[in-house]
Design brief:
This protein has about 160 residues and is α/β, with parallel strands linked by helices. It has five helices and five strands. It has a single domain, classed as Trna Endonuclease, Chain: A, domain 1, CATH 3.40.1350. It is globular, with a radius of gyration of 17 Å.
Length: about 160
């Protein structure tokens, strides 16, 4: 199976699968959506209709590095913004950060981990099906190869 190096369809498929599983665990229907905060839209991987839950999913399999960790930090910032800015009836929504692998979850350290702990962001690991994991790993391998080619062939000036 050939995976385009610029296609994140495998990760999107994993996110959909993980979101469905999390919906079942929480007992709420979660769908991709956005949250309006002072006119700024915050896009989220999962929101319930009552706005009592907000979710970000990181569908990487394996240890995170570099820009991947920055993406997680961005997801944490989005969850913090929603949690701190939008109390519903005096209650902040339950914010959940979900990883597709234990290795990815374990990669998060330092100030990002402390922000998660300090602000009570719930962290979960929900592994997608074996078939989905294979597709994600293939996509990740293709993305790494492109990254190497871009650095090798890129303009360094």
């Amino acid at each position: 199976m050939s995976v385009s190096p610029h296609d994140s369809q495998a990760q999107r498929g994993a996110e959909t699968e993980i979101l469905k599983a999390l919906s079942g665990q929480l007992g709420v229907v979660l769908e991709t959506g956005s949250w309006d905060i002072g006119g700024a839209l915050v896009s989220l991987d999962g929101v319930d209709e009552q706005r009592t839950h907000c979710v970000e999913i990181y569908a990487c399999i394996g240890t995170l590095k570099g820009a991947q960790l920055k993406k997680v930090a961005t997801d944490v910032l989005k969850l913090l913004l929603v949690k701190e800015s939008v109390p519903i009836g005096g209650l902040s929504p339950l914010c959940v950060l979900v990883f597709a692998s234990e290795a990815a979850e374990g990669s998060v350290r330092g100030w990002v981990r402390e922000a998660i702990r300090t602000h009570d962001i719930q962290v979960r690991v929900i592994e997608p099906s074996c078939e989905t994991q294979i597709r994600v790993r293939e996509a990740q391998a293709a993305q790494v190869m492109v990254g190497i080619a871009q650095v090798t062939d890129g303009d360094w000036s």
